[in-house]
Amino acid sequence: MNLNLKNKNALVCGATGGIGKASALALAEEGVNVTLVARNEDKLKSVLEELDQNQNQSHTYLVADFSNPSELENKIKEATQSKAYHILLNNTGGPPGGKISEAKTQEFLAAFNQHLICNHILVQTLLPGMKERGYGRVINVISTSVKQPLDGLGVSNTIRGAVANWSKTLANELGEFGITVNNILPGATATGRLTEIIKNKANKTGKTEEEVTQAMQSAIPAKRFGQPEELANVVTFLASEAAGYINGINVPVDGGRTKSL
User: Fold this and answer.
1) Sign of CA pseudo-dihedral 228, 168, 113, 127
2) For the whole prediction, is pTM greater than 0.90?
3) Which residues form the signal peptide (predicted)?
4) Which residues share a beta bridge with 34?
5) How does pLDDT run across 162-220, given as a tens digit for each residue?
6) CATH superfamily of domain region 9-187+227-252
């Protein structure tokens, strides 16, 4: 299958690890010019060196902290003065875990800013270029909690649902311009985030990390955790011309763990 991604420009958020990094690497292999976005410049430089350049791609990076939406807005506006983007991967680390009944209001506000508000800033800034070219792919990495809330992730469950509905509304508005907006819902994926969740569960329950891992994997029909590269494959397809008639959907990539359709 020819994905026809050569010479496309992509902005990849959370690009220094996990799903973001894997997606940046996969897109680059398909000929995409990738702009990496994260807050750690040293890590950005390291990932930049790993990106494929065999098709004369031109890669760069942008240092930005999603806890500061106004700073992000200034930086992305500056970046789009010299380049228009066809692809946006919204991908940000999830809020800390905990019961929703014990969550502080500030936790919701911080997560709302970091996820929905920053996503919105990026879309609004990149949208004119996408419309002008008649091609746009907005892909949001969210969570299976959109379909089935996860215990112990109260703030995350709430914010992910807001992002999913924001995304669906955008898809309805932008489809006529050749722009699609879709969500990827990762299940338990072998990233630093999952390692953190396992450690927290082990500390709270008194079980070993191995016991927690085995219990989590047993709940997955595939009986294993996903790999970031498996999520990146879905990102790359949704970013392509081949996925032009897929719009406004949630795609669980979870080994079958989510019980709902």
Assistant:
1) positive
2) yes
3) none
4) 10
5) 999 999 999 999 999 999 999 999 999 999 889 988 998 899 899 999 999 999 999 99
6) NAD(P)-binding Rossmann-like Domain (3.40.50.720)
CA-wise closest residue to 15 among 180, 118, 141, 146? 141
Q: Residue 94: count other Cβ atoms within 10 Å of its Cβ.
A: 21
Structure tokens at 248: 């406004």
- Phi then psi dihedrals of residue 88, to 5 deg: -130, 125
Domain ranges of the chain: 9-187+227-252, 188-225
Q: Is 139 exposed, middle or buried (0-12, 13-18, 19+ CB in 10 A)?
A: buried
As a whole number of angstroms, the distance between CA 32 and CA 51 comes to 10
Cβ–Cβ under 8 Å, residues 20 and 44: no
When computed from its CA atoms, the radius of gyration of the chain, rounded to whole angstroms, is: 18
* Helix%, strand%, coil% for the chain, nearest 5: 50, 15, 35
Are 187 and 194 in contact by the 8 Å Cβ rule? The answer is: no
3-class DSSP assignment, residue 81: coil
Using DSSP bridges, classify how beta strands 179-186 and 136-141 pair: parallel, antiparallel or unpaired.
parallel
DSSP character at residue 82: T
pLDDT of 97 > 90? The answer is no
